[in-house]
Write a structure and sequence with these properties.
mainly beta; two-stranded antiparallel sheet; 3 helices; 25 strands; disordered N terminus
């Protein structure tokens, strides 16, 4: 059982009562309206970034007849203020056998992870907005001390103000300032890191121009350094992220298009045996969308800049192409993801060729979060089945090589997992996984995952090489 501070128990009690009231209210409201015309309840579309949730209600119904809990669209101050409340309870148990190929001790009884969030979204005449979200993340069962992505007793995950105005060209201009989660494109470079117990967030200023077809963001941000106590997180002054990200949304048979430029500065970056200033620029483009039963996601990124006294010349190519068969039993989708990222071919020259994924998603390739997107190429076929509208089963395999034999393999956070070690082998390992996700309602999701990683010749020749098994059970309830 999770051992939490007293305020965590109070926080859990409060958020559970609110969630139960949220779940019970539609039935209560329906009973109150039994003698009236049949009404269609409002629906909440839950987003990964909770400040992007959408609440959709039937336009034709009077407000008093809407069977929706008094948590969303609460009218205040004679209708000028609109308040919505929400949150999440996530409980997860996971266990890894022979973590990092038995270089790290395993957790004897597995690890229990708990994440609670609660947010308030206040809007003034739809032009001014304040959004605050609290998070409490705790763990129990690790063989060693918890990592920064396991525990954060109580913190501000989001706390920003937002100002927006329409323009004469049906384009809306928006300014957002404060602590905020950021996620762009396929989350290869900027993501909230949902696969971990503690999500990533930034202190940032963001300007946006958007309409139905286009969105252009300009931002500057600093990542938040997580500390395990209450309200003790702070921005990491050694790192700065900025950039411009433009998106044309897919329409009809036209594919969507992303074009972006990012600037990354870190004063104390480390590559190999060298620590120094890193100034890295990323220029990228992504083509994505679907035509009939086919779907596409293809991305190319070039990186340049300086690190210490070296020039940066790095790159990556990523792709995923799939086809759905909705008329067949189980409505299958088959897909192939193929990816490659540069490594450093000669650590002794004046060029640094290692790709930097900046702030990527936590489970970049699979739930065994051990290998990261640097100095690699891989093939990742998978099959998605839908036994019922609420149940999705995904089976996949991942074949992973290192690109440059003079460079090693890396973890998702960019730290070195295994150095070259004198081995000329390229093959790192094979992973097979299966995941079942069941959603009895939009607010509730249950996920069961199993993964197995079999080490390749490079791992065998450079150190411990026990196969890794991983299993997790997760329940997530949002309101």
């Amino acid at each position: 059982m999770v051992t939490a501070q007293p305020f965590s128990h109070l926080y859990l009690l409060t958020i559970t009562v609110v969630a139960l009231w949220s779940a019970a209210w539609p039935g209560f409201a329906a009973a109150q309206n039994a003698d009236k015309e049949e009404v269609v309840p409002c629906q909440t579309e839950y987003a990964l970034l909770r400040y992007e949730d959408q609440v959709r209600c039937p336009d034709a119904l009077p407000e008093s007849d809407l069977p929706f809990p008094p948590l969303k669209n609460i009218a205040l101050a004679s209708g000028h203020l609109d308040l919505s409340l929400g949150g999440e309870i996530t409980e997860r148990w996971e266990k890894s056998w022979s973590p990092e190929f038995a270089e790290q001790p395993g957790d004897p009884d597995g690890t229990w992870l708990q994440r609670l969030t609660f947010h308030a979204d206040l809007k003034f005449d739809h032009n001014i907005r304040a959004f605050v979200q609290l998070i409490s993340a705790v763990e129990a069962g690790r063989a060693g001390p918890p990592s920064p992505v396991d525990r954060n007793d109580l913190a501000l995950q989001n706390a920003f103000v937002e100002f927006s105005v329409p323009t004469a060209t049906e384009t809306r201009a928006m300014l957002r300032i404060g602590r905020q989660e950021l996620r762009y494109g396929s989350a290869r470079l900027i993501d909230v890191r949902e696969g971990t117990n503690v999500r990533r967030t930034f202190d940032a200023a963001l300007i946006r121009l958007s309409n139905e077809r286009f969105r252009i963001d300009g931002f500057v941000a600093r990542p938040i350094q997580v500390s395990p106590g209450a309200f003790d997180d702070h921005p990491n002054d050694d790192i700065t992220l900025g950039g411009i990200y433009a998106t044309r949304r897919p329409s009809g048979r036209r594919l969507g298009l992303d074009i972006y430029w990012l600037y990354y500065r870190q004063d104390t970056a480390t590559f190999g045996q060298t620590t120094g200033d890193e100034r890295r620029y990323s220029l990228g483009t992504r083509l994505f969308g679907r035509t009939a039963e086919w779907d596409y996601n293809i991305e190319a990124i070039a990186q340049f800049g300086t690190f210490a006294d070296q020039r940066i010349t790095a790159w990556t190519l990523a792709s995923e192409i799939g086809r759905s068969f909705p008329a067949l039993p189980l409505a299958p989708r088959i897909a192939l993801s193929a990816n490659i990222a540069s490594g450093d071919s000669d650590p002794r020259d004046d060029r640094l060729e290692a790709f930097n994924a900046l702030f990527p998603r936590g489970n970049y390739f699979y739930e065994i979060t051990i290998l990261g997107p640097r100095n690699f190429y891989n093939l990742h076929p998978f099959l998605v089945l839908h036994p019922s509208p609420r149940l999705t089963v995904t089976a996949d395999a991942n074949f992973f090589w290192r690109l440059e034999t003079a460079d090693g393999v890396y973890r998702p956070n960019g730290s070195l997992l295994r150095g070259p070690g004198g081995s000329q082998a390229r093959y790192v390992g094979t992973t097979v996984s299966i995941e079942a996700a069941y959603s009895p309602s939009p607010a509730l999701e249950l996920v069961l995952t199993y993964s197995h990683l079999d080490p390749g010749r490079f791992i065998v020749e450079t150190g411990p090489s026990e196969p890794i098994d991983f299993v997790s059970i997760e329940a997530k309830w949002r309101f």
